[in-house]
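Try this one yourself first.
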């Protein structure tokens, strides 16, 4: 499909000359002899670029430009102007015009300006889309969970993102530490800057320093040219150091100096490099125990742990397992081209009873495997790996469903039935809203309500937004 250009100019011959030239170059061209006709064309046709004369009958070119900006803030507009109107053309640029041409221009010059404006507009749109996708993927509300512990994590991530302090994210392997780090970055004032992750356990100790600090040409035998390290590449953004507990002690001392001085030297260099980078770190180790054993510097720990976030393992928030599974099914439906809608009750019970030593990462892998093996719209126990199904076979026949266990438990003293009922209502309302992405009609159906008004009443009652 060819790109379309609208020419708004009241001269009798110029618009048609430009239109013929541009059509031969593959563009679809519309023309309008006055401002109102031009605005109507914009409303009725998909326009990719406007060539706008400054002097028009009715509204002036500047007024038309302002109208265009209210209709489409991103549409590229090139101003056509006479020599005496250069100052007005400059004013138009300040109002958002992409470029301007002095009348009497060469047609090849026109083509270059048109191509440049369209390319710049396309790149800007793509960049905005990529940033939006990245922001959508890592917004803290997309970290799935309805348990009390995860809601506390959401609230903390929201507060931490507004600060520029160092953050230490703790949790077992697979709990989503990098996802949380990206969410902090994307909700911070540094979101337009880069995010660079580095797994300290995945890089040989002798390479870790050059990865972080970079090196000068001829700093060592294979250093054929200068290389910037991640500390420089993350300028204006965030550096995420995963598995920080695996960093050797000598590197810990060098990292501490960077955090204290906000500067460093490349390997083999004598010029100090100053940086503006936020450092987030994560670990699955007990760093306090590592400090006692002399394996981790206490001064670095306190530099990194200005703010701390502890991510709970999946086994400690079983109420989130099916929510996460539903989210992964949604993701893999898109990436695998599938149309899976549900998990059978038997498979749900197996997922709920499993201990998930690999946490969220393991659950995601299990769901992906099941969707590849399934040939229907439902995931069954047969699609689950042996460690999950086998776990069930070894379970005593008298083993109860987790809900049955809760219902059969006996309180140690007096209870408030009203309070328990309120807690159950709140729990299931939040669950239904999370499952349906806050679609109240679908959430009401999920809870078995005949009318959505019943759900609205309970949401108001419990102060749920």
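Now uncover the answer:
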């Amino acid at each position: 499909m060819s790109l379309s250009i609208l020419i708004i100019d009241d001269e009798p011959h110029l618009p048609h000359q430009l239109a013929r030239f541009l059509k031969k170059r593959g563009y679809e061209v519309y023309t309008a002899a006055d401002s109102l006709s031009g605005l109507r064309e914009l409303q009725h046709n998909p326009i990719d670029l406007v060539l706008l004369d400054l002097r028009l009958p009715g509204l002036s070119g500047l007024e038309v430009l302002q109208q265009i900006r209210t209709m489409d803030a991103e549409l590229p507009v090139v101003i056509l102007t006479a020599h005496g109107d250069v100052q007005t053309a400059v004013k138009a640029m300040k109002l958002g015009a992409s470029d301007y041409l002095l009348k009497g221009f060469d047609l090849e010059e026109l083509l270059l300006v048109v191509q440049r404006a369209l390319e710049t507009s396309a790149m800007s749109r793509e960049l905005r889309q990529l940033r939006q996708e990245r922001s959508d993927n890592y917004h803290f509300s997309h970290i799935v969970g309805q348990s009390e512990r995860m809601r506390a994590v959401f609230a903390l991530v929201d507060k931490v993102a507004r600060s520029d302090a160092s953050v230490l994210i703790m949790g077992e392997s697979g709990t989503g530490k990098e996802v949380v780090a990206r969410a902090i970055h994307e909700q911070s004032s540094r979101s337009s800057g880069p995010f660079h992750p580095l797994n300290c356990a995945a890089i040989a100790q002798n390479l870790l320093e050059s990865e972080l600090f970079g090196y000068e040409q001829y700093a060592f035998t294979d250093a054929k040219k200068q290389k910037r390290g991640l500390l420089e590449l993350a300028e204006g953004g965030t550096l995420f150091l995963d598995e920080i507990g695996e960093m050797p002690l000598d590197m810990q001392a060098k990292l501490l100096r960077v955090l204290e001085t906000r500067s460093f030297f490349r390997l083999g260099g004598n010029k100090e490099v100053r940086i503006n980078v936020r450092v987030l770190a994560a670990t699955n180790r007990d760093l306090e125990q590592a400090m006692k054993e002399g394996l981790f510097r206490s001064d670095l720990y306190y530099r990194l742990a200005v703010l701390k976030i502890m991510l709970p393992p999946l086994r400690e928030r079983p109420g989130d397992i099916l929510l996460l599974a539903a989210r992964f099914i949604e993701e893999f439906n898109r990436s695998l081209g599938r149309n899976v809608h549900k998990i059978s009750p038997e498979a749900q019970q197996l997922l709920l009873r499993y201990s998930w030593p690999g946490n969220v990462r393991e659950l995601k892998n299990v769901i992906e495997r099941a969707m590849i093996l399934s040939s229907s719209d439902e995931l069954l126990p047969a699609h689950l790996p042996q460690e999950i199904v086998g776990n069930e076979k070894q379970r005593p026949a008298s083993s109860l469903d987790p809900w049955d266990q809760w219902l059969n438990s006996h309180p140690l003293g007096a209870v408030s039935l009203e309070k328990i009922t309120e807690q159950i209502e709140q729990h299931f309302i939040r669950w239904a809203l999370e499952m349906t992405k806050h679609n109240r009609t679908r959430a009401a159906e999920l809870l078995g309500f005949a009318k959505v008004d019943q759900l609205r009443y309970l949401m108001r009652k419990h102060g749920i937004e």
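Discussion: The chain has four domains: 4-133, 139-312, 316-408, 410-465. The radius of gyration is 30 Å.
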